[in-house]
Amino acid sequence: MTTIKNYQLEKMSAKELTSLWKSIKSVYTRHFDTPIQDDYLNKKCKNAVVARLRVIWNGADAVGIMVLFGYKLKLNGHKSIVYRGSGAIDKGYRNKNNLSNFLFYNVLPQIIRYRGYAQYIIEGFIHPSSFCISQKAVQKIYPSPNMNTPSKILNLMETVKEQGLLGGYEFEDEHPFLGTYPCNVVQSSRENKRWENKVAIDEYTEFFYQLGAMKENKAIICIVPLSVSNFVLSIVKSGKERLRQLFLKKNNLVMRRNYNHS
């Protein structure tokens, strides 16, 4: 039986964090080709003002992990909070709303609590599916094929690199938002073909591949400014996208029925 449990890591002791991580880190080792120590959560929670975890359990086995850590920093003299989110979910337990639901659930209270701060989520996307979902669900997200990236977002990207908040990523001079991460992305030839076909019909998939993501474990790092307005507009945008998908699905069903009766 699949269950979901949420954890407020900032309220847990170092011993509890180590024990919890030992019981779930096998999910990360299946997805990321990098050594992961037992004190991973303790290190991530150090200096974090917000530290949250969601685990998807299949009985006693962890099959999905989503984490969120928020750190205070100064950007161009202004107080800011940068949230680092990431997730690893086994195939068969993935849902389009898994990560977005987790982030909205945990971030919205912080937007209100720290309303005197400029707040941002930074997320890396190694696969076009999660990248496209985010682009279609979030009103303001950078980089994007629909918007120019403001200079303050470019400056923020350089600041978080300098302060080590993007640990694990290696950056070259190809693109400021393109980083290499040691993960295990394996696709069948059929899946590869399906995504290659989408390049011609989906602007976000085209943008993802044009930047050079996925090849050689390269990920696109995206930044989302957190504000009440962006939150509300993203809900509206996400709702419109769901209606569009339902409309397309309904039309496809009608076309199939007409074809079968012809």
Looking at this protein, list some descriptive labels:
262 residues, alpha+beta, 9 helices
Task: Please give a structural write-up.
By secondary structure, this protein is α+β, with helices and mostly antiparallel strands. It has nine helices and eight strands. Strands 1-2-3-4-5-8-7-6 form an eight-stranded mixed beta sheet. A hairpin with a 2-residue loop joins strand 2 and strand 3. Helix 5 packs across helix 8. The chain is globular and about 55 Å long. The relative contact order is 0.12. The mean pLDDT is 84.
Instruction: Give the integer mean of the pLDDT values.
Output: 84
Fraction of residues in helix: 40-55%
SS summary, helix count: 9
| Rough outline | globular
For the CA atoms, what is the radius of gyration? 19 Å
| Terminal Cα span | 44 Å
Low-confidence stretches: none
Task: Characterize the largest beta sheet: strand count, sense, and whether it forms a barrel.
Answer: 8 strands, mixed
- Strand percentage: 15-25%
Annotation, overall tally of beta strands = 8
What is the N-to-C succession of helices and strands? Answer: EHHHEEEHEHHEEHHEH
Structural class: alpha+beta
The neighbouring-strand order within the major sheet is 1-2-3-4-5-8-7-6
